[in-house]
Amino acid sequence: MHNASSSVTSPDRDEDRRDEYPKVTQVDLDRDSASITPHRSSTAAYGNHVIANGSHAIADNTYAIAYTSSAIADSVHVIAYNASTMTDDVHAVTYASSTAADSAPAMVDGAPAMTENLPAMASRVEK
Length: 127
Known about the structure:
Blueprint (H helix, E strand, L loop, with lengths): L10 H8 L7 H101 L1
């Protein structure tokens, strides 16, 4: 069985370690913050400069997207051209349908002529 007291750090050891670290006073903190402040401002200015460069890169990407959109517009033009070709084919089908319609009245005109002959045939049978 493990001894529980062996895993606990003694208070004497913590006191010994505190002496290893340098003592920091408020004067030290004030001095350090005064010397750090200009560097932070300079870094912020540099950060803004980097953001400006990032915006420039985004502008370049937007140009690439605009170029791609132009290519898409060209594709749409090709589709419109194909649609125009299809319209020509539909016109040809319509013309063929019109020809069939012209033939149909001729057949209808022939039908009454046959009907007129039927009573004549019927009268012959009766005689």
